[in-house]
Design brief:
Layout: H1 2-11, H2 18-53, H3 59-62, H4 67-86, E1 106-111, E2 116-119, E3 125-128, E4 133-137, H5 138-147, E5 150-152
Antiparallel strand pairs: 1-4, 1-5, 2-3
Helix pairs in contact: 1-2, 2-4
């Protein structure tokens, strides 16, 4: 407001205020850049939270977010879900599944309950009976691990 008042006076003939007006304007632009950099950093951190914690944030983290940040998180979550459904056929592709590449393509699993025959891509079938152990492709087992049929045996 003070700058605008000085601009009005400078237009009426007080040229000594031009340097002061220019200095204040540069300060305002610098403050604006700092605020925008801070907000952009917050946005990147909130986006990283979606990849780290999944679609539901813990209350301890959500407590420190403003209502606008929570709204932005929810919109980003929906946008990412829509994109993952559109890629990868009928089931979609879960991009958040393996953030770090797996060390091996095959894993050792133990069957927790009787499931029956399970076909692998090369055409072989494996009989999944309770307490049996198998060495199967990781990507083929992940759904059964989530359903509680198989358990990943860590060495």
């Amino acid at each position: 407001e003070r700058n605008q008042a000085d601009v009005s006076e400078a237009k009426s003939g007080r040229t000594d205020l031009i340097f002061l007006i220019r200095f204040r304007h540069c300060c305002l632009l610098r403050n604006q850049r700092c605020v925008l950099a801070y907000l952009y950093d917050r946005l990147l951190r909130i986006r990283a939270l979606r990849w780290e914690y999944g679609s539901v944030l813990p209350n301890t983290i959500q407590f420190h977010m403003s209502a606008e940040e929570v709204e932005w998180f929810n919109r980003y979550k929906k946008s990412l879900a829509t994109y993952m459904r559109s890629v990868g056929g009928e089931e979609g592709l879960d991009l958040t599944q393996d953030i770090k590449p797996p060390k091996s393509l095959y894993i050792e699993v133990r069957c927790l309950r009787d499931y029956g025959e399970f076909e692998i891509d090369d055409g072989t079938t494996v009989l999944l009976k309770k307490n049996s152990q198998h060495f199967l492709p990781r990507w083929k087992c992940e759904q059964l691990i989530r359903q509680g049929v198989l358990e990943h045996i860590l060495s």
